[in-house]
Design a protein that fits this description.
Strand 1 and strand 2 form a beta hairpin. The chain is globular, with a radius of gyration of 17 Å. The longest helix is centred in the middle third of the chain and has 17 residues. The protein has a 6-stranded antiparallel sheet with strand order 1-2-3-4-6-5. By secondary structure, the protein is α+β, with helices and mostly antiparallel strands.
Length: 203
């Protein structure tokens, strides 16, 4: 079927199309979430090898396939009201990211109105310019690196094994970039050194 202007299909990203065709886990669930995303004001992209949805260049939601569930992570989830406490923390060190977890299309269908409400609220947060008030030091693990950890557990384990100084070198390199796209690229570039047990500036 050919996409037409104004139709959700016209917002489909070809890279995400290919990802969905190749993925073997949670295919139906991802397709179900994708349909909801495409019906919103978010822009679809493939980032960190996963379907990611942004608003005016700012990351809002990313789909995270895990072994036991499918995650739908809000980068600024801690700012969402979440009155029923549906969202869960994206990790023990996460102060910003929170996510839904699904194990079936039926769960997604049942929560469709709630998901849409959370997406609208997340977009409103981006429009308002609200930022997460991190309670720890400025060099807290940036969201871009947390996404890498969530999709690549081995990198998280290797990072935790680094000395505080080496951890800080990677964090400062990432947060030193002003643009989100640059921070994402820097986070990916840190991966080989982290896995090698090195700080960012080590040869």
């Amino acid at each position: 079927m050919k996409a037409v202007a104004g139709d959700p299909m016209s917002k489909m990203n070809e890279e995400v199309d290919h990802y969905l065709q190749k993925t073997k886990s949670w295919k139906s669930e991802i397709a179900s979430l994708r349909k909801i995303m495409l019906g919103s004001a978010l822009t679809e992209e493939l980032k960190w090898g996963k379907p990611c949805y942004s608003f005016e260049g700012k990351n809002v939601v990313i789909i995270q396939p895990f072994k036991s569930s499918l995650g739908m992570m809000f980068f600024k989830g801690s700012l969402l009201k979440d009155p029923k406490a549906i969202l869960i923390d994206n990790g023990p060190n996460s102060q910003a990211a929170k996510r839904f977890e699904f194990t079936s299309v039926q769960e997604i269908t049942k929560l469709k109105s709630t998901i849409n409400a959370y997406i609208k609220e997340a977009i409103a947060i981006e429009k308002s310019g609200m930022k997460v008030d991190f309670k720890s030091k400025p060099e807290s693990t940036p969201a871009e690196l947390l996404v890498v950890f969530a999709t690549k557990p081995k990198v998280k384990k290797a990072f935790d094994a680094l000395t505080p100084g080496r951890q800080r070198s990677h964090i400062l390199h990432i947060v030193g970039a002003k643009q989100a796209k640059t921070r994402q690229m820097r986070a990916e570039k840190c991966v080989p050194r982290i896995l090698a047990g090195k700080g960012f500036n080590e040869v």
